[in-house]
Specification:
Strand content: 25-35%
Function: Removes the formyl group from the N-terminal Met of newly synthesized proteins. Requires at least a dipeptide for an efficient rate of reaction. N-terminal L-methionine is a prerequisite for activity but the enzyme has broad specificity at other positions.
Shape: globular
CATH superfamily: Peptide deformylase
CATH topology: Peptide Deformylase
Largest sheet: 5 strands, antiparallel
Radius of gyration: 16 Å
Helix content: 25-40%
CATH architecture: Alpha-Beta Complex
Pfam families: Pep_deformylase
Keywords: Hydrolase, Iron, Metal-binding, Protein biosynthesis
Distance between the termini: 33 Å
Strand order of the largest sheet: 1-2-3-6-7
Number of strands: 7
Number of helices: 3
Order of helices and strands: HEEEEEEEHH
GO molecular function: metal ion binding; peptide deformylase activity
Family: Belongs to the polypeptide deformylase family.
Amino acid sequence: MTIKPLIILPDPLLRQVSVPIEKVDSELLALADDMLETMYDAPGIGLAAIQIGVPRRLLVVDIAREGEEKNPQIFINPEIVKSSDELSVYEEGCLSIPEYYAEVERPAAVTVRHIGRDGKEHLIEADGLLATCLQHEMDHLNGVLFIDHISRLKREMVIKKFTKAAKAKVV
């Protein structure tokens, strides 16, 4: 397994819509394993393929807390088929927007259809942190960032800060 470099805001790749995956093969599973290794190293609880520069509809999550046994999950072509009317607020962060956090309101529970590591279709009902994490990562697959769910003023400030930092690195 290989730790991949993360794509950081303002990279335009983060706004790209990822393409569906046609087949589950050893190459795809190796990519998923690299993504898990990258996510754990960061450290984070979720990672979409686009965050390592691969515009494919693949994400990985593991919401196990420190000291708990790891529970890596792979979601290929995930799709929300049902969302609760009840909303919840979590303070979210993103590996592609390091060290910035904001409260985001999302449906408290979701039902997600996806293809698993075994190549078969699965349905998972998620609530709490897992529901938030899945929605956050699935947003990435559609070119949406968690800062798109906060006020325009705050979002513009974050984008300006990261654009300035990116320009400083180039010089």
